[in-house]
Amino acid sequence: MLVTDLNDLIRPDRYPRSSGYDPAWLLNLHMGPNPLWLLEDLARDLDLRPGMRILDLGSGKGATSVFLAREYGAQVVAADLWIAPEDAATVFADAGVGDQVTAVRAEAHTLPFEEETSTPS
Q1: pTM, rounded to two decimals
Q2: H runs (alpha helix) in 47-110
Q3: How do beta strands 53-57 and 75-80 pair?
Q4: What is the pLDDT of residues 3-19, one digit of tens each?
Q5: Can you tell me the distance from the alpha carbon of 27 to that of 19, in angstroms, rounded to the nearest whole number?
Q6: Which of 3, 25, 75, 82 has the highest count of CB atoms within 10 angstroms of its CB?
Q7: What sign results for the dihedral spanned by CA atoms 15, 101, 94, 60?
Q8: Integer Cα distance of 112 and 59 in angstroms
Q9: Interatomic CA distance for residues 39 and 28, integer angstroms
Q10: What value, to the nearest 5°, has the Cα angle with vertex 77 and ends 112 and 71?
């Protein structure tokens, strides 16, 4: 399906949570398939609760981290090798979740966390 209109990114019947996000904002942050749709599909099978600590590995520019913080009240560590933590932190602050999301530069094989924690070392 070719998206020809920003409104094509809004599908409240299938994605009620992610349809509330500004399509232009999402396109500015996207790096592949609609990450909010993918996450919303996945989240249906998870028991996500407020206050959970979630590692968003390969978080890209941060759309999924914002979604996890806003929609589920999670505390998120947004880890990505290619996006500077400062750039991601700006996205999180602008989205109003800067106090819930921490950005780190990390490679999946060598995560910068202490054993048994998601706190950056």
Answers
A1: 0.73
A2: 63-72, 85-94
A3: parallel
A4: 557 677 678 788 889 88
A5: 13
A6: 75
A7: negative
A8: 15
A9: 18
A10: 165
